[in-house]
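=== RUN LOG ===
request id: a7f3
mode: sequence -> structure
chains: 1
length: 504
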Amino acid sequence: MKYVVTAQEMRRYDANTVEKIGIPAMVLMERAALALLEAVRRHGKALEKRGICPERRTALVLAGTGNNGGDGLALARLLCEEGFETEVWTVGEQEKATPQWKAQWEILQHYPAEMVTKPKSREYTVVIDALLGLGLSRELSGAYKKAALAHKKIQGYRIAVDLPSGVDADTGKIWGSALQADETVTFGFCKRGLLLYPGCLWAGKVTVADIGISQAAFYGETPGMFSLDEPAGKLFPPREAAGHKGTFGKVLLLAGSANMAGAAILAARAAYRSGAGMVKVITARENRVILQETVPEALLGAYEELEESLAWADVAALGPGFGTGKEVCACLEKVISCGEKPLLLDADGLNLLAAHPAYQEELARQAAGGRTLILTPHVGELSRLSGEKTEIVRERLWESGQALAGRLHAVVAAKDAKSFVCAEGRPLCLNQSGNSGMATAGSGDVLTGILAGFLAQGEEPFRAVCAGVRLHGLLGDQVSRRKGEHACMAGDLVEELERMHFFD
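=== RESULT ===
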C-alpha cells in the first residue's frame, strides 16, 4: 500500500518532520536535491546505452522563490559539481523568498552557475522545473506565465521538482497552462495530482523519493487516500489447504436477459477463476443451453427458485446484462427482501436502484444494520444514482463515490479511467492499474465476477473491492502488453486470470 497525499497533508507532514521530529529543513532540501541528481544521472546512463554522448552537458534550472525553487538551486550547485554548464533562471521577488531559498542562493554564488533572465539556448541536456511545486492555487500569470511559455519552446529532458508547475496537486487540474515533464521526482509521498487526469499526462514518469519525511510525521493524521501496489498473486484471498468447494464460497449470479448470455458467461467464469467454489446462474431460459456449453461448471437456477437459491448462496450479484423489465425488478425486490446475504449490484441492478428510491432506502437500512452492500457504478450510473450531472460526477468522482457510500452505507467502486473505492470511515483507494483497452463491452461483467468470487471466499468487503479492482486492471495491463490496447476484449481478461497466479 502506498499513501497518496494532498498539498495540505504534505505541508503538515513536512512541518511535523522539521518542527516535531527535528530534521532541519535544509537537510530535507539537500536530500531532495540529491534525489533529483539521481534522476539526472539515470537519464545520462540511458543516453549512454543508446550511444548518445553529448560533448557538452548543459542544464537549465527554472526556479521560483519558494522551497520548491530552493530545491532547484541546491540541484544547480550539484550539477555544477557534476560538470554541467548550468544556467539558473529565477522567477519571482527574491525579497519575499523563503529563508531556505535565500540560504541556497547565497551558497550557489560560490559555484560557476550562470544567472540568466531567459534561456540562452534552445536545447539543454536537462531542463529542471522548480518553479512552483505545491504552491499553485490559480492560473499562471505575469512572469510565471512568461517562463512557462518559454519552457515549452526548449528541448531537453524535462524533470519536474515535486510537481509540474501548473498542475493542481489535489485534483490534477491544469491551471491554464502547465509545464510538461518527462519525469517528476516527488518527495515523501505521491501527490494526488500526479495520478489523476489530466495532471498525470503532464507528469511523465513519477519517481517518489525518500528524503526523510516518513509515516512518523503523521502523528495520528493519516492521509485520506492510498493506492494498492501489491502484485497480482498477493491480491487473491488465501486458500485453505484442506478446503473443499463449499469452503471457497457459493456465488449466486443473476445476469443475462433473453438471448443475451454474454454478460452472464463472463461474470460466471470470472467468479470461478477468482477462486469461488460454486457458482449458480439465474438467467433467462433462452440462455441456458449456451451457458451449459460455455460454463459447464456452473449450476443453473430459475426465477421461481430465487428464494431457495438465496438461502444456498454466500453472496448474490445482480445486474450484468440482466435488463430492467418487470421480471428482473421482481428479482431485485426478492433479493432485497431476503435482506441478509452480501449483495453486489452492477449495471442493470444499479439502473433499477436509481429508478426506485424505495429500494435505496431499504438497502441503506439493511446496510446500516450490517448487510454487506457493494455497488460498482461507472460515471453514468453514478450520475443517475446521485442525481448530479455526468460532467460534475466525472470531475469529482471520488466525492460522488464517497457521498453514495455514506448515504447507502455501501462499499462503492466508482469506475472511470481512474477508479476509486469508497466506504464510510475508510480512506479512499485510488486504483492505478488498467488502461484504455479495458473500455470494451463486458469488462465490467468480469469485474463483477471477480468481486463476487472474492466476497464468497470471505474476504473483508472493502479489501475485496480494493483488491478486485486492482486485479481487474492488472489483467487489462497484461492483455494489452501481449495484444495491444486496441485488441483487448473482455474474454481476454478472464483468460488472463488463469495466468495471474503465477506472475509473482
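=== NOTES ===
The radius of gyration is 27 Å.
The longest strand covers residues 123-130.
=== END ===
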